[in-house]
C-alpha cells in the first residue's frame, strides 16, 4: 500500500473511533439507548451532567418489579432485648499459710446493648429481623476476676429510618452514621469482694446480673433523596429516572408498574451528585388509602424538593398538578409548597404539543416540557435540578446545617 493510502486508511480508523465514542456517550445519555436519527449534536455538549451508563452485568438477569417489591420492606416490628448482665461470684481466697485470705469473688460483666446504626449500603428494612437478643456478660470468677462485658450488637438500618415506640417517635435516623440505643444491656452482678466491709470481713453475698432491657419498636422507612418525583400512574416517572440516572425501575404501559420507591443518582461535574426518587404512582384519594394508598406518600416527606411529573398527552393536564398538590396537602400540611418543578412529559406525542400551551396558560412558564422516551429537552430538567439543589444547599448552610450528601 502506498504511504498516502496508508495514511488515509489510518485517518479513517481514527474518525470511526471518535464517531463511536460520541455515539456511546450519547447512548449513555438516552433512555433505553433509543437514539433518534436526527439527534442534534448540540445536545452532546451538556457540560454539567455526566450520566451513568447502563451497568447491568452481562448474564445477570435484573429482578422483576414484583420480586423487588418482596425484598423491599419499609415497616418492621422488632423485639429488642439487651444482653443480660453476668452474675457476681462468691468465693474466698485460700492458699498455704493464708487460710482465710478474704472474699475474692469478682463482679459479672455488663450485658451488651443493641444499637440501631445507619448503614448506607442497606436500602430497605428487609434485612432487619423480628427479634434481637444482645450478648450477655460473663459471670465473675474467683481470684477477683471480673466477667467480660457482652459485645454491642449492631443492627444495620437504612438512612431515613424512623423508630417508634407505642406510636411515639423516639428516634429519627436520617443521617449517615446515626445511632440509637434500642435496648440497654443489663448491669453485671457484684461479687462478694464488693461487700467486704469493716463490720463484715467475710461476706458471702453476691448478686445476680440484671436482665437486659426489652422493648418493642416499630421501624418505619422514609426514603431520603434530594428530589422526589410525584405523578399519576403512567406519567413516565420511571422512564424519566432511567433517562437521567443509572437506576433501572421497571417501565410498562399499565398503571402501578412501580411498587416501591427507586432512588437514582444524577452525576454532575465536580463529583456533585443529586439523588432523585421515583415514588409509586399517586391517584386522587390516595390520602384516603386509594390506589397504593398513603403508605407511599410518606416517602415524599423526606425529599428536599419535588418534581411533579405530568402526562401531557392527557386532556387538561393542569388538573393532574392540582390533584397531586391536593393529595400532598391532605397528607401533610405544607408538603405541596416545597420547592418544586413541573415536568410535562411525553412531548413527543402530537396531542401533547397541543396541550402544552394550555398547560402553560394555567401554570405559567415554569413548566419543563420534555420527552423521557426520546430524550428531548432533558438538559433543561438537569439544569433546573441543579438550580433547585444549589438553592437547597445554600438554604441549609444559611441555617448552619449540613446539607444532605448522597
Ligand atoms: N411517547 C412517550 N411515552 C412515554 C414517555 N415516557 C414514558 N412513556 C411511556 O409511558 C408508559 C408508562 O411509563 P412509566 O415510566 O412506567 O410510568 P410511571 O409514571 O413510572 O408509571 P407507574 O410506575 O405506574 O406509576 C410506558 O409505556 C412508557 O413507555 C415519553 O416521553 N413519550
Ligand atoms: Mg414507574
TrEMBL record:
CDD domains: Obg. It is found in: Mitochondrion inner membrane. The keyword Mitochondrion applies. Keywords: GTP-binding, Membrane, Mitochondrion, Mitochondrion inner membrane, Nucleotide-binding, Ribosome biogenesis, Translation regulation. It comes from Macaca mulatta (Rhesus macaque). Associates with the mitochondrial ribosome large subunit; the association occurs in a GTP-dependent manner. It is a peripheral membrane protein. One of its GO terms (cellular component) is mitochondrial inner membrane. Pfam families: GTP1_OBG, MMR_HSR1. One of its GO terms (biological process) is regulation of translation. One of its GO terms (molecular function) is GTP binding. Residues 70-224 form the Obg domain. This is Mitochondrial ribosome-associated GTPase 2. PANTHER family: DEVELOPMENTALLY REGULATED GTP-BINDING PROTEIN-RELATED, MITOCHONDRIAL RIBOSOME-ASSOCIATED GTPASE 2. It comes from the Eukaryota. InterPro entries: G_OBG, GTP-bd, GTP-bd_Obg/CgtA, GTP1_OBG_dom, GTP1_OBG_dom_sf, OBG_GTPase, P-loop_NTPase, Small_GTP-bd. Residues 225-390 form the OBG-type G domain. Belongs to the TRAFAC class OBG-HflX-like GTPase superfamily. OBG GTPase family. The keyword Nucleotide-binding applies. Plays a role in the regulation of the mitochondrial ribosome assembly and of translational activity. Displays GTPase activity. Involved in the ribosome maturation process.
Amino acid at each position: 500500500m502506498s504511504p498516502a493510502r496508508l495514511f488515509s486508511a489510518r485517518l479513517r480508523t481514527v474518525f470511526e473511533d471518535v464517531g463511536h465514542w460520541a455515539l456511546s456517550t450519547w447512548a449513555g445519555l438516552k433512555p433505553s439507548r433509543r437514539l433518534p436519527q436526527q439527534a442534534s449534536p448540540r445536545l452532546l455538549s451538556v457540560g454539567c451532567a455526566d450520566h451513568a451508563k447502563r451497568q447491568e452485568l452481562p448474564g445477570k438477569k435484573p429482578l422483576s418489579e414484583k420480586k423487588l417489591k418482596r425484598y423491599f420492606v419499609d415497616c418492621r416490628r422488632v423485639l429488642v432485648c439487651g444482653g443480660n448482665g453476668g452474675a457476681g461470684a462468691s468465693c474466698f481466697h485460700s492458699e498455704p499459710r493464708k487460710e482465710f485470705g478474704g472474699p475474692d469473688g469478682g463482679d459479672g460483666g455488663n450485658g451488651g446493648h443493641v444499637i440501631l446504626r445507619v448503614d448506607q449500603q442497606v436500602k430497605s428494612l428487609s434485612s432487619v429481623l423480628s427479634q434481637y437478643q444482645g450478648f450477655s456478660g460473663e459471670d465473675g470468677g474467683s481470684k477477683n476476676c471480673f466477667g467480660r462485658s457482652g459485645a454491642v450488637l449492631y443492627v444495620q438500618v437504612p438512612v431515613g429510618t424512623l423508630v417508634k415506640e407505642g406510636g411515639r417517635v423516639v428516634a429519627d435516623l436520617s443521617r449517615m452514621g446515626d445511632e440509637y440505643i434500642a435496648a440497654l444491656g443489663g448491669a453485671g452482678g457484684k461479687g462478694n469482694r464488693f461487700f467486704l466491709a469493716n463490720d463484715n470481713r467475710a461476706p458471702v453475698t453476691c448478686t445476680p446480673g440484671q436482665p437486659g432491657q426489652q422493648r418493642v419498636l416499630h421501624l418505619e422507612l422514609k426514603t431520603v433523596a434530594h428530589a422526589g418525583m410525584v405523578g399519576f400512574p403512567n406519567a413516565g416517572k420511571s422512564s424519566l429516572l432511567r433517562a437521567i440516572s443509572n437506576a433501572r425501575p421497571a417501565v410498562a404501559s399499565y398503571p402501578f408498574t412501580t411498587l416501591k420507591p427507586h432512588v437514582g443518582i444524577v452525576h454532575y461535574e465536580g463529583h456533585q451528585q443529586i439523588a432523585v426518587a421515583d415514588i409509586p404512582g399517586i391517584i386522587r384519594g390516595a390520602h384516603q388509602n386509594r390506589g397504593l394508598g398513603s403508605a407511599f406518600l410518606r416517602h415524599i416527606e423526606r425529599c428536599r424538593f419535588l418534581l411533579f411529573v405530568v402526562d401531557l398527552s392527557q386532556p387538561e393536564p393542569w388538573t393532574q398538578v392540582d390533584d397531586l398538590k391536593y393529595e400532598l396537602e391532605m397528607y401533610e400540611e405544607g408538603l405541596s409548597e416545597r420547592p418544586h418543578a413541573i415536568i410535562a412529559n411525553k412531548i413527543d406525542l402530537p396531542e401533547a404539543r397541543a396541550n402544552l400551551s394550555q398547560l402553560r396558560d394555567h401554570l405559567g412558564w415554569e413548566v419543563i416540557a420534555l420527552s423521557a422516551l426520546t430524550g428531548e429537552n432533558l438538559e433543561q430538567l438537569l439544569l433546573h435540578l441543579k438550580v433547585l439543589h444549589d438553592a437547597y444547599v445554600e438554604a441549609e448552610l444559611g441555617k448552619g446545617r449540613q446539607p444532605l450528601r448522597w
